[in-house]
Structure formats: C-alpha cells, structure tokens
Amino acid sequence: MADNPSISRAAAVRQRSLGWGLRVWVVLVAFVLVAPTLVVIPMSFGAGSTFEFPPKDWSWHWYAEFFTSKQWLAALANSVQVGLLAAALATVLGVAAALALDRMRRGAGIVRQLLMAPMILPGIVVAVAIYGVFLRWQLNGTMLGFVLAHAVLGLPFVLTSVQTSLAGYDPIMEKAAASLGAPRFTTLRKVVLPIIAPGVLSGFVFAFATSFDEVVVALFLQTPAIKTLPVKMYESIVLEIDPTIAAASSLIVVFTTVLLFVPALSRRKEQS
C-alpha cells in the first residue's frame, strides 16, 4: 500500500521544524555557557582599580600584576604540580582498572559504579568525605593529600576514556602475541597500549583539567602554605575585591580550552 503524500509531507515538515528547534536550543545553551567568558575576558584588560564592563581604558596591568605576584605564581605552580601528579596517578590507576574490568566476568558493573562515584556524587559530599579521612591520616594541607584527592576525582574520566577505546579492541591480538612468545608486559606495552593510546591521552588531559579547575575539595585541604589557583581566586572574591582574578580567570579559560583540544587533534592526526 503506497504512502499518503500529504502524510509524508507533514512528517517531513514536522521533522524539519524539530531540527530547527533543536538548533535554536543548542545556540541558546552555547550562548549561556559562553556569555560569562565574553564578560570576564574584556574586564581583565581594564585599567581601572575595580571591575568594570565594558572597560573605559584598556591595559595589561592586571596580567602584569598576576605574573609579578609571588602569591598568584605560587598558587599557579601548586595547581600545575598537583594537576600533573594527580593526572599521572589517575591515568595509571584508570588504565589498570579499565583493563581489569574488561576481563572481569562477574561484578564488573558494581566495581565500575564504585569507581565512578566521585563523578556522580555531589562535590561537597566527596569533599567532606575526603576531609574526614585525610584528617585521620594527617594528609590535610600536604602535597600528597592534594595529589591523592585529585587523583580520585580524575579517575572516573580516565576510566571512561580508556573503556571507550577498549570497546573496539579485539582480545585475539593478545593471544596472537602470546602464541609468538611475547611476555605479558611486552604484549601490554607493544600491543594493548598503542591501541588504547588515544583514550589514555584523553583521560590524562581530562584528569589534569579536573584537578586544575577543582576548588571544593581544595578549600577543605588548603593551608596558608599550600593553596591552589582556584582557592586563591575564591579568596580574592570573598575576602577582597582584586581585579587580578579576571586575568587569572581568562588565563584558565584559554589554557583549559587549548588543553581540551589536544585529544581531538591527536585523534585527527592518527586518522589522517
């Protein structure tokens, strides 16, 4: 039985209208997400002694203030150091967990949910739990405490990225390497890791970005001796009106945006 042309046309019109409606919503959501950045970045170039938008005069004053301040540079160095160490630890643990879950027959779903808990639970709940445990272990206010806490927060991102890469992995390749006499470590290094490398890189980048931007847990763990950049930014808003935060925010936005493009560029390079 032939389709009714009027019904087909009505369905096409409805589908077109839904497509346009979806595009409009995407544009609106993107605008809401980007709008604060479009305000903060111009304010960072203001020459005034306080926040003003749009700036009356333009200057690099607050960027110079940021890069000449010992407190801001110390907070930046702490964030970079904690981020790199936490991302490296989260990547090692995440890759091991993903490989183990890929080979588990029972209980894999429960274990995965436990490992994904830091991403699912509210940040304040995770922060209070980490603070309570680290208080007993005397890890509050230490670099090791920051690294361990941020590694826990970055682990779910590594696990998700690596498991996505493992979805297209054929275990027969491991058996073929073993049949040729390759030890387990050699098979992991020369067969498995090159295949899941894009997922590992993506997980590392997201874990680093998570640590670099994290503020809730850092507020619980920070001391006058160790403060990360987000904590310093929070204090500059709550305790004092310091326009240097506009320059710091702009630098973080640009740096994080460039950083998140790294996995996409690496995948495109591999495909080409």
UniProtKB/TrEMBL annotation:
Topology in membrane: Multi-pass membrane protein
Pfam families on file: BPD_transp_1 (PF00528)
SUPFAM superfamilies listed in its UniProt record: MetI-like
Database matches in Gene3D superfamilies: MetI-like (1.10.3720.10)
Keywords per UniProt: Cell inner membrane, Cell membrane, Membrane, Transmembrane, Transmembrane helix, Transport
Residues that span the membrane, as ranges: 24-45, 82-102, 114-134, 146-170, 191-212, 245-265
Cellular compartments annotated: Cell inner membrane; Cell membrane
Keyword Cell inner membrane: yes
Entry keyword Transport: yes
Principal cellular location given in the protein's record: membrane
InterPro entries listed in its UniProt record: MetI-like, MetI-like_sf
Residue intervals of the ABC transmembrane type-1 domain: 76-263
Family: Belongs to the binding-protein-dependent transport system permease family.
Designated name of the protein: ABC transporter permease
